[in-house]
């Protein structure tokens, strides 16, 4: 299964090798910039130009949580390996650590001087790497 998101404001899961669409999700009001499966495979997270991050439940085929807090487009998102936290990177120059269980932002990471364009948890760690239009990479200890 492959997960994609695009300018059409939709995410799609594709089955391979046939390439058929298995599921489609809609709800964002602007382009999708990122999408990522939860490690358990039961949910996914998406980020969008509409400034939101959304959590989707695959068994219910719908959005279960919309996370708001960025002031500009969200450029990327990623799950922590435990599945309880999501990170997001934004054109507003910040990144956020979201607690999915409490449905709130735990931390806002500030330090880049321009848009934060990508974000990832390093596997099985509490370290996040971000890349920015300011031509820097940053490593963050989010404990």
From TrEMBL:
InterPro entries: WD-F-box_domain-protein, WD40/YVTN_repeat-like_dom_sf, WD40_PAC1, WD40_repeat_CS, WD40_repeat_dom_sf, WD40_rpt. Keywords: Repeat, WD repeat. It comes from the Eukaryota. One of its GO terms (biological process) is axoneme assembly. Signal peptide: none annotated. WD repeats lie at residues 25-66, 67-108, 109-143. This is SPG16 protein. It comes from Chloropsis hardwickii. The gene is Spag16.
């Amino acid at each position: 299964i492959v997960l994609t998101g695009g300018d059409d404001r939709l995410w799609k899961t594709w089955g391979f090798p046939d390439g058929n669409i298995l599921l489609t999700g809609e709800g964002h009001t602007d382009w999708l910039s990122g999408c990522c499966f939860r490690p358990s495979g039961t949910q996914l997270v998406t980020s969008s130009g509409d400034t939101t991050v959304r959590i989707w439940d695959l068994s219910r085929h719908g959005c279960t949580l919309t996370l708001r807090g960025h002031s500009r487009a969200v450029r990327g998102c990623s799950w922590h390996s435990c599945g309880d936290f999501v990170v997001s990177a934004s054109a507003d120059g910040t990144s956020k650590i979201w607690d999915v269980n409490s449905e709130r932002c735990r931390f806002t990471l500030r330090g880049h001087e321009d848009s934060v364009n990508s974000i990832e948890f390093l596997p099985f760690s509490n370290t996040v790497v971000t890349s920015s239009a300011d031509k820097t990479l940053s490593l963050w200890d989010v404990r």
